[in-house]
């Protein structure tokens, strides 16, 4: 994984800031600068570990997601089980965000533990094929790796972090990055029109109110005023790609 896409690179900046501050405070307090290095490094490592390992829960909380127990939505359970069994995905835990918007997100640090997030609007507003396409897309995103965007959400919540993390969020939301996942999911389900239809319902339906720190995690960039449907928007370009498959 390139350094610029590494979760370690994300947590390194705030960790280094903590190291400098703790070292300076201890030095001012009269502790030998050399002796102060050890506790400063320890504090920096603790901050880095906290930002990394707590990132999934931090992201889920910022998304406003609550766990969806197995059996609460049998249709979703059936689709998820079928996709995971057929294509070898490890079943993620499922969470729901109460919103009329049609959208979904994926959170995780890699390995067997991942979290699928869907809005209540997607569960109630999409037909079976559209919901299957959305779930398949998020499973493909998890398969490609969502550790970087998940840790980015954790770091973005720090005071003053937004200007530093904006560029990384833009890379995560880049057209090529999100469209490639769309195409992979369309090939997985063998029915591209379903995902294209779900994306269109997302941009033409109610907007999604979400924290800026987690905006990059959503399948469709949240636009409370529905401006995502403006001509030439990246989501409409994604739909056009799917319609050409």
Structure characterization notes:
With 245 residues, this protein is α+β, with helices and mostly antiparallel strands. It folds into two domains: 51 residues, no CATH class; 179 residues, Zincin-like. 61% of the residues lie in helices and 7% in strands. The chain has eleven helices and four strands, in the order H-H-H-E-H-E-E-E-H-H-H-H-H-H-H. It has a four-stranded mixed β-sheet, sandwiched between helices. The longest helix is centred in the first third of the chain and has 22 residues. The model has no long low-confidence stretch (mean pLDDT 92).
CATH architecture of the largest domain: 2-Layer Sandwich
β-strand amount: 5-15%
CATH top level class name of the largest domain:
Alpha Beta
**How many beta strands in the DSSP annotation?**
4
Compute the number of helices: 11
Shape estimate? elongated
Largest sheet: 4 strands, mixed
Q: SSE string, helix = H, strand = E?
A: HHHEHEEEHHHHHHH
| Quaternary structure annotation | single chain
- Gap from first CA to last CA: 29 Å
- CATH homologous superfamily annotation of the largest domain: Metalloproteases ("zincins"), catalytic domain
Report the structural category: alpha+beta
